[in-house]
Structures are given as C-alpha cells and as structure tokens.
Design a protein that fits this description.
Strand content: 5-15%
CATH class: Alpha Beta
Helix content: 25-40%
Number of strands: 10
CATH topology: TIM Barrel
Bound molecules: ribose-5-phosphate
Shape: globular
Strand order of the largest sheet: 1-2-3-6-7-8-9-10
Number of helices: 12
Order of helices and strands: HEHHEHEEEHEHEHEHEHEHHH
CATH architecture: Alpha-Beta Barrel
CATH superfamily: Aldolase class I
Structural class: alpha/beta
Length: 292
C-alpha cells in the first residue's frame, strides 16, 4: 500500500490500538438542520478534540470548522437527494477529488445503496471514486446506506452490502450494527466502523458501541447519540473510554454520569482508571485552541 494511503488511514484508525472514534456531523447533507446540529460550529467545537476524525460535508467544513484545528477530515463527497425527495438512493458524487485535496481531506466518504433502485449508479460511483482517490493516496470510506429504513437491515443484508463495497476497493466500510454482527465483520476484508443511528438512551448507545467492538468493528462513526445527548462532551468521553480504553458498558455509563455531574446510584463495578486518559494523547493536537 502506498505510504500516503497508509498514513491517512493511520490518522483515522489509530495504529496504537487499531481503533477509531469518528464524529459524524454530515447529516445536513440530506436531512437539513437536524436537531442539535442546527448551529454546526456550536455543536462541533466542544467535541472535536475528543474524536480521532470528523465526518463532515464540504460546506459545513468551510463555514463551521476552524482550519487552525488539525482534526483529520473524512469528507462526505456524495449527495443529491433529501429526506423529502422521492428516493434517497439516487446519490451521485458531488465533490471533486481536487476540491477534497484543496480542503486537505484525510479520507473521502460516500454512500452505496445496495439493493435499491439506484444501486448500480452508487456502486459504480464507488469504484470510480476509489480509482481516482487512490491516484492521490486518499482512502475511501463507503457507507452502506439503507435509505429511510436506516438501521433495520439484518446481518445477511449488511454482510452483502459491506462485501460489495469492499470488493469495489473501499478502504473502510461504515455500516449499522445488527444481531450476529460477527458475520458482517468476518466476511468483510476491510475494517468496519458502525454508525450510531437514531438517538437512544446513553447506556444503550454505549452498549451498541461495546457490542460492535466486541464483534470486531474497529470503531464508531457516531453522531446523534453524541450531540443529541443531554451531555455531549460526557457522552463522547464515555464512548471513547470503550473505543480506546478498557471500559465495559457499566464503567462507561458510570463515567458518563460522573462527567455529567449526575448522582451515581449504581456503584461502579470498577473504578474509572484515573491514570489513564479517556482520550488517547495526541501530541500533534493543540489542547484547546478550537474555535468556540
Ligand atoms: C449517514 O449516512 C450519515 O452520514 C451519518 O454520518 C451516519 O448516519 C452516522 O451518524 P449517526 O450516528 O447519527 O447515525
């Protein structure tokens, strides 16, 4: 594998533990001003220093992220439909690789809609994007999108969709967690990251994270379950304590409650490890200079 490609993947999936915490804030590309993401800058600023990378659109990046803050960018380059339109699967590539390079994107992300009316178009787009991006050493993350039925597909479908994306050359695949998730991971030759999906109680979202990692996912690309949480910073730190730390669900939930300043009625089964940062140290990142 080319050095540049390897280096960029290493900025998304930490080589220290082969895990990734991606913060998803690209929802507006088809949902418009999603709840708690109406003001992009206000939502992103306090969270960006706790993720490994930020999944975002070109417009949101330019308008709402301080270019002085070196968070790796996974740039969404597909779109063309909206939630009130006819068919979410009719996506095309909307951002050129040249513009992605200009924006210093670390990776490109696009959706494939396997089994949909427009599967051919989206799968061919993926193949072409991989060919073009590889010329510049840029990895492609394929999202196995399922349109309006988000999160309702089973392991049989998701295995097929992930495998199709990987066979087209996607370097990372993002999909949804499901029962028998090992089947999805084991039949996909590239790393899998899961989406968080719609907002669920914090403890359930932490369980989703834990179960997905246990089944072999390398990490999460989580949005609503972080920034729609009552305490987004506490939540991203709790998710991080599972992804990059050793916390189980109870320990991570205890950490979430502690950081939220909530009384802890359930005694922790294990004390949080105060010697260990809940965020992996990143010496390249300034501590607190993100525009707020
Ligand atoms: C869907 O394709 C969007 O691109 C989001 O990035 C993705 O769904 C992850 O966000 P959430 O955790 O809110 O589902």
């Amino acid at each position: 594998m080319d050095w540049g490609l390897k280096n960029r993947i290493a900025r998304i999936i930490s080589p220290a533990d082969n895990k990734a915490l991606m913060l998803a804030v690209d929802h507006g590309y088809f949902l418009g001003p999603t709840e708690k993401l109406e003001d992009l800058e206000k939502t992103i600023a306090p969270l960006a220093k706790y993720c490994d990378s930020l999944m975002i659109t070109r417009g949101a990046l330019r308008t709402s992220v301080n270019p002085d803050y070196p968070v790796p960018i996974v740039l969404r380059v597909s779109g063309g439909t909206s939630i009130i339109g006819e068919d979410l699967s009719q996506e095309d590539i909307t951002v050129s690789v040249k513009d992605a390079i200009r924006l210093n994107a670390t990776a490109l992300a696009m959706s494939v809609f396997v089994g949909s009316k427009y599967e051919y178009q989206t799968i061919v787009n993926l193949g072409k994007l991989v060919s073009e991006a590889e010329e510049y050493g840029i990895p492609v993350l394929a999202v196995t999108a399922v349109g309006k039925e988000i999160g309702t597909k089973d392991a049989r479908y998701l295995s097929l969709a992930c495998r199709v994306a990987a066979e087209q050359g996607a370097h990372i695949v993002k999909t949804y967690y499901c029962e028998n998730f090992e089947k999805v991971v084991n039949s996909c030759p590239v790393p899998i990251i899961i989406a968080g999906g719609k907002k669920i109680p914090e403890k359930d979202a932490l369980k989703l994270t834990y179960d997905a990692l246990k089944a072999g996912a390398v990490g999460v690309d989580m949005g609503r379950n972080i920034w729609q949480s009552e305490n987004p910073v506490a939540m991203i730190k709790a998710v991080n304590s599972i992804v990059h730390g050793t916390n189980n669900v109870e320990q991570a939930f205890t950490l979430y409650k502690q950081l939220s300043g909530k009384p802890n009625n359930n005694k922790p089964t294990q004390k949080p490890n105060n010697n260990k940062p809940t965020q992996k140290p990143n010496n390249n990142k300034p501590n607190n200079n993100f525009k707020n």
